[in-house]
Write a structure and sequence with these properties.
Elements (H helix, E strand, L loop, with lengths): L34 H6 L5 H14 L9 H9 L1
């Protein structure tokens, strides 16, 4: 049985529930949206949402992977 009651014909959020804002780029590292885009998503028109989604692939290159963390600290001590 298909649950048609809850299905919507709208542009869905790209959120993947990894909500961390990159300190320099000011983009969410999970979905690549700005904090403003995340905040305004529910009030955006379908066309505005599509525009944001079209920009996301180009934003991915702006985020550099962090090097370091615990593994780097432990390795440098040894």
């Amino acid at each position: 049985m298909k649950d048609d009651i809850w299905s919507r014909n709208e542009v869905q959020s790209p959120c993947i529930k990894v909500c961390v804002i990159h300190p320099q780029e000011r983009l969410c590292t999970g979905c690549l949206r700005t904090a403003r885009e995340i905040t305004m998503w529910s009030s955006m028109s379908q066309d505005e949402r599509r525009e944001v989604l079209e920009e996301l692939p180009d934003r991915a290159g702006r985020l550099r992977k962090r090097r370091g963390g615990r593994a780097a600290r432990v390795k440098s001590r040894g």
